[in-house]
Design goal:
The complex is a heterodimer of chains A (about 425) and B (about 280). Chain A is of the alpha/beta class and about 425 residues long. Helix content of chain A is about 25%, strand content about 30%. Chain A has eleven helices and 19 strands. In chain A, helix 4 crosses helix 5, helix 4 crosses helix 6 and helix 5 crosses helix 6. The longest helix of chain A is centred in the N-terminal third of the chain and has 17 residues. In chain A, about 35% of the residues are buried. Chain B has about 280 residues and is mainly alpha-helical. Chain B is built from 14 helices and two strands, in the order E-E-H-H-H-H-H-H-H-H-H-H-H-H-H-H. Classes of the chains: A alpha/beta (about 425), B mainly alpha (about 280). At the A-B interface, helix 2, helix 3, strand 4 and helix 4 of A face strand 2, helix 2, helix 6 and helix 14 of B.
């Protein structure tokens, strides 16, 4: 019989709606509430205490995670991912159900928990490590490795308030990366830091799992999930939607998050919504029923169909691509606004190959009448993921928001009189 | 929640809804002593880091306070004569030091869970560490103040008697009251934020019910019991007597310690009841 590192059985967590207030009554409110309920009782009314509506943040969740594997948890915001992590890391208690974890448990719900700006890097390493459950002698023996991983040897005795945010995150992650529990719970911590550092952190996580330890990894970053996880659980509305190989769960997740046609009226806004509808948006011919993974070497074709009830004079369709809330680019279907006759229409645009770096993008579409007198706009209607790849046109070290295919050039003039080798400094 | 050892020698963490006192876990607390020390050290370091005088402030505050009390009560109101042959300055310093320890430790503990919300919401550890560690900085201040008091006594020629041997025991019993009220207040403050405003007022009131600026003997016998209801009053008076070599009122000390102990037990029980909701309400 194999013993699973994590065994979760029918775990549920209930919150009372409005408990943000109810759980935190001031003395006055409590007194007032007592008086109020007494009055209500006299009047024969139901008291507010019994009215609080129950809300299941997590309902009947069961799963098992094998030792030495990375188990991913995905789902929309509010799907119960964070609640699950909080229960497993013992920050909050379940309402019912049970979880068993074999081995020392370390949890990493954010990097740099308890970092104090006035303390030096050194002091913060010890404090943060203790908060994460490391023993003092353990930290002492790993201290040099931690500092080296963070590349902060020179600043380790400087208060962290003088650190740049990059340095801060590096130090914080370095501590976390040297946690060596048998079970590691990680929440979205890779959302910080630059891409190079993120890659190093991902590498570190794979190492941890290969070392026979178990990782439970919660993320919105489907790239990281696909890259790291052996098995993925998709949560939706506090319940298990599916547990499967990563690709299937990711596909299903992408379907859930981009199901914009279910309520098109609510998705678009602007005056033109009265006469105009967008029916289907596709990316390279794929609509929202399938995952949209785009390979860097293919151009990305955005295509939309729609209809108008009457002629819309001087109209242009707008396509915008966003990453992490930043609008990367916008393109239009026509050079200048032109009349759109009543009936159906199609519009399209194309993003060249090798332009976008790997990651998740969202697409917003809309359009406007000349002079912005009337418009229609739908935000984040669909997403797509640009996958990783290694080629001359797509060097993984080309960090940044966009990609330039190919390379620049270099010119050197060899001079024997200068003996030092300028290359050695960089090597 | 429990931790047992399997044949594979792996720790098993079992997570389920807790009932009763299952989570008091004083043993577990010991396993987290490193964190306790580091949290206390953090508070101490942060407190004096930016201050030009640094730890000097730990000296200046009680001395200034004692000086003010000496001028008003000792000289202007003639208390000096009531505590003779002990100089009133020494008398009041010996009382204000443990009182300051109590007052600042309770204030710090009471706000500690809220002040450490960023950790409490993100990591598990026995929550009791938070109010306990908040006592660290006041304790260091007390130690520094104690040295000052000893120096002042030597300077003013106040003799030291054999009863100083009781001092460690008295400080231990003082800490029972400090932890007791501190833990109780920290849990209450999370549940009812009003106590943040109420606490300074209650402490001010308690200050006058504690024999700091006056000797216990000044209080008429029939009101003496009022002072005994104080979780630290009898202890502070006894501690001062031990330092100054005046007669120790053992009954008052015992009653005070018992009340401090009762507060500690009530505090621990209440704390563990509220503790599981901390992350949800802090």
């Amino acid at each position: 019989m194999t013993q699973h590192a994590i065994q979760v059985d029918a775990l549920s967590k209930q919150y009372r709606l409005g408990s943000v207030v109810a759980a935190q009554p001031t003395l006055g409110e409590r007194l007032y509430g007592l008086a109020g309920s007494a009055v209500n009782r006299l009047r024969g009314k139901q008291t507010s205490r019994t009215k609080g509506e129950a809300f299941w943040a997590l309902q009947d969740v069961s799963f098992e995670a094998e030792r030495g594997k990375v188990f991913g948890v995905i789902g929309r915001n509010g799907a119960g991912k964070s609640t699950l992590l909080k229960i497993l890391s013992r920050i909050t208690e379940p309402t019912s159900g049970e979880a068993l974890m074999r081995g020392r448990v370390g949890s990493l719900l954010e990097v740099g928990t308890g970092f104090h700006p006035e303390l030096t890097g050194r002091e913060n390493v010890f404090l943060n490590a203790a908060i994460l459950g490391m023993k003092r002698h353990e930290v002492a023996s790993k201290f040099d490795d931690i500092v080296a991983f963070a590349e902060l040897e020179k600043f380790i005795d400087t208060p962290v308030k003088r650190y740049s945010s990059g340095m801060y995150v590096r130090l914080a992650f370095a501590v976390a990366a040297h946690l060596e529990p048998e079970v590691l719970l990680i929440d979205e911590v890779l959302a910080v830091g630059d891409a190079g550092f993120q890659q190093r952190c991902l590498g570190r996580m794979s190492e941890i799992a290969e070392g026979g330890r178990t990782v439970l990894f919660v993320s919105h970053d489907m790239g990281a999930i696909a890259q790291l996880c052996d098995k993925v659980m998709l949560l939706d509305g506090g319940q298990v939607e599916m547990i499967s190989e990563p690709q299937q769960a990711i596909d299903r997740y992408l379907q859930i998050v981009s199901n914009w046609r279910s309520d098109p009226g609510g998705v678009f806004n602007g005056l033109l919504t009265k006469v105009m509808r967008f029916d289907e948006l596709t990316i390279n011919g794929v609509n929202n029923s399938k995952p949209r993974i785009v390979h860097p070497e293919q151009p990305i074709k955005l295509h939309v169909t729609g209809s108008v009830d009457r002629l819309v004079p001087s109209f242009r369709t707008t396509f915008s691509i966003f990453r992490d809330g930043v609008r990367l680019l916008t393109q239009h279907d026509t050079p200048v606004p032109t009349d759109l006759p009543a009936g159906k229409f199609e519009a399209q645009t194309e993003v060249p190959a090798y332009l976008l770096r790997p990651g998740r993008y969202t697409v917003s579409i809309g359009g406007y009448r000349d002079g912005m007198r009337e418009h229609i706009w739908g935000t984040d209607l669909m997403d797509f993921t640009v996958s990783e790849m290694w080629s001359d046109n797509y060097d993984p070290i080309n960090l940044g928001l966009i990609n330039l295919p190919g390379y620049g050039s270099r010119k050197t003039e060899h001079n024997d009189a200068i003996t030092s080798n300028p290359g050695s400094a960089a090597a | 929640m429990s931790a047992i050892t399997t044949p594979h020698d792996l720790h098993v963490t079992r997570i389920r809804r807790s009932r009763g006192l299952s989570r008091l876990g004083l043993l577990e607390l010991w396993g987290y002593r490193d964190l306790f020390i580091l949290l206390a050290l953090r508070d101490i370091r942060v407190r004096y880091k930016q201050a030009a005088l640094g730890v000097g402030w730990a000296l200046i505050q009680p001395i200034a306070m004692a000086a003010i009390l000496f001028v008003f009560f000792g000289l202007l109101m003639g208390m000096d004569a009531k505590v003779a042959p002990t100089p009133y300055l020494i008398f009041v310093l010996a009382g204000i030091l443990p009182w300051t320890l109590f007052e600042s430790a309770v204030t710090a503990s009471s706000g500690s869970v809220v002040a450490n919300a960023n950790i409490v919401r993100k990591v598990y550890f026995p929550r009791l560490i938070v109010p306990l560690a908040a006592t660290g900085a006041p304790l260091i201040d007390y130690a520094i103040g104690f040295i000052v008091l000893m120096a002042a006594m030597a300077l003013l020629g106040v003799p030291v008697t054999g009863s100083v041997l009781l001092i460690p025991l008295m400080i231990a019993s003082l800490l029972v009251g400090v932890f007791g009220v501190g833990v109780l207040m920290s849990a209450i403050t999370v549940a009812y934020r009003d106590f943040r405003h109420l606490l300074p007022f209650m402490l001010k009131l308690l200050f006058f019910l504690t024999p700091v600026i006056y000797p216990v003997t000044m209080v008429p016998e029939r009101f003496r019991w009022l002072l005994s209801l104080n979780p630290v009053g009898g202890t502070i008076a006894a501690l001062r007597s031990a330092i100054l070599g005046t007669p120790i009122l053992y009954t008052d000390w015992l009653v005070s310690t018992s009340i401090g102990l009762a507060a500690l037990i009530a505090g621990l029980i209440y704390f563990q009841r509220v503790e599981k909701r901390f992350a949800d309400i802090v």
